[in-house]
Amino acid sequence: MYILLCLYFVFLLIKGITPKIGLKTHTYLRTASKMVMIKIGIIGANETGKRHAAQFLQIPDFEVVGFFDHSPAIAQAFAKENNLKHFTDLNLLLDEVDAIDILSPVGTHFRYASQAIRKSKHVLLNGLLSEDIREAKQLSELAIEANVNIRILHEDKFHPDLKTFKRMVKRPNYVELKRYQNKVLSVSNDSMIFGMILSDIDLLTHIIGSNVKKVVANGAAVFNSYTDFVNVRLEFENACVATLICGNFNNGESSYIKAYQKGECIGMGLNDFEITRLVKDEDNEMVHQEIIPKNNRKQDIVKLELEYFALSILSRQRMTQDTHQSYQNLRIAYQVIEKMYPSTLFDYNG
Fold first, then answer.
1. What's the pTM value of the predicted model, to 2 decimals?
2. Span 67-75, average pLDDT
3. Number of domains, the chain
4. Do 197 and 90 fall within a single domain?
5. Do 163 and 286 fall into the same domain?
6. Based on the domain organization, do 8 and 75 belong to the same domain?
7. Is the pLDDT of residue 60 over 50?
């Protein structure tokens, strides 16, 4: 009964519905799971760590044990400001927690995550598994072997309005995603791929729900020394085709995603998440319909993701499928780089 109840709550969160958990229900969950709280630690004394720590305190299933950061000066200030214990040894922190929230730079993800997984700790990652596909594959395999969860935060995917958009997109023939946003610090030609394109590839595969069979890509350095404009065409096994156009600069255009399917085009803004539907009316005229999601109450997306992470642990639901898809999306990103700059990468197949 306990596992079914937890899975029901996970289902509600996936649908964008915040479950109403009363005192009796929450007490039952904790009693049945034989866990008072999920003890969690944070790696990374930064603004995101501060935000997550505040959210954990609002979620009854979590107890923040402390944090780890390699910089003594930053750690001291962070500990004082957030009233958290600073662990100078990561192993000591891992020994006291059930899960770890890794918010350090992506280059440290593999080192910290593999260390945690080998101690059978659940892992929450910000952004991506790793920029190195070999490390990403190893993390995926380690998580399966250790029977632990790896959850990768992706706020767009967890937005309730995007869930409404995904439910409306049933059998798309063509999907178009355009995003112009000056958000990536370019230090190489692949900076934009890992800082921008990868998350949109993740979004497209999530919406379309099929494997990619062919990748075509090109890029250019328009306003910067390194690549800041990328055009990607993805062909999926379900016959859908997606075009991804991204610029690492603001050009005044709105960012959006549009899905074309039989009899309609469904669009959603990627800044305001407003959904519109283009259809023919009774007079055979094209009309735009504004879609207002049923659950339009303002919600904290990060908190929803953290609650989902907690419920997946309590219900013993492994997220290996999510981890595997993240690894596959990283492989697609590597193919994009290879198409743009042939022979600059090691073999990504495997």
1. 0.80
2. 93
3. 2
4. no
5. yes
6. yes
7. yes
| Predicted local confidence at residue 252, as pLDDT | 86
CB 123 within 8 A of CB 292: no
Contact at 8 Å (CB) between 234 and 214?
yes
> Residues 6 or more apart from 185 whose CB is under 8 A from it?
191, 195
Check residues 291 and 269 and name the one with the higher pLDDT: 269
CA dihedral 118, 120, 122, 125 (to 10 degrees): 0
pLDDT of residue 346: 46
- In terms of Cα–Cα distance, which of 245, 249, 278 is closest to 261? 278
Residues 176 and 120 in one domain: no
Evaluate whether residue 327 is within a structural domain: no
Are residues 238 and 182 part of one domain? yes
The CATH number covering residue 29 comes to: 3.40.50.720
Residue 325 lies in a domain: no
Mean pLDDT across 178-200: 88
Same domain for 136 and 182, yes or no, is no
How many whole angstroms separate alpha carbon 257 and alpha carbon 45?
A: 34
Range of the domain at 52: 2-153+301-319
Does residue 47 sit in the same domain as residue 147? yes
pLDDT digits (tens, 9 = 90+) for 246-255: 999 998 888 9
Q: Which has more pLDDT, 167 or 1?
A: 167
56, 179: one domain: no
101-153 pLDDT, tens digit each: 999 988 899 999 999 999 999 999 987 888 888 998 899 889 888 888 888 88
**Does 13 have pLDDT greater than 60?**
no
Cβ–Cβ < 8 Å for 232, 244 = yes
Domain-located, residue 346: no
